[in-house]
From TrEMBL:
Coiled-coil stretches noted in the UniProt entry, renumbered to this chain: none
The organism of origin for this protein: Mustela putorius furo
UniProt cross-references to InterPro entries, sorted A to Z: ANL_N_sf
Protein name: DIP2 disco-interacting protein 2-like protein C
Length: 76
């Protein structure tokens, strides 16, 4: 597999090269970021409220678990 064909990896620790025109900052880290829907074992659709803090922590944990660093050429 050619690593150069992979999509770019977004690093949450990298500073942007240009300042974005508008940055969204939630008034409170516990405000709702998105709803995560899944189907329970009984077949009922259930939604889980995901906060901005939980979403940020999830992204950081994935980065650490997958060892997604600029020096890496592959990630599992």
């Amino acid at each position: 597999v050619d690593v150069r064909a992979w999509p770019p990896i977004l690093d949450t620790d990298d500073l942007p090269k240009k300042r974005p025109a508008q940055i969204y900052k939630p008034s409170n880290p516990d405000t709702l970021a998105y709803l995560d829907f899944s189907v329970s074992t009984t077949g009922m659709l259930a939604g889980v409220k995901m906060s901005h803090a939980a979403t940020s922590a999830f992204c950081r944990s994935i980065k650490l678990q997958c060892e997604l660093y600029p020096s890496r050429e592959e990630a599992i």
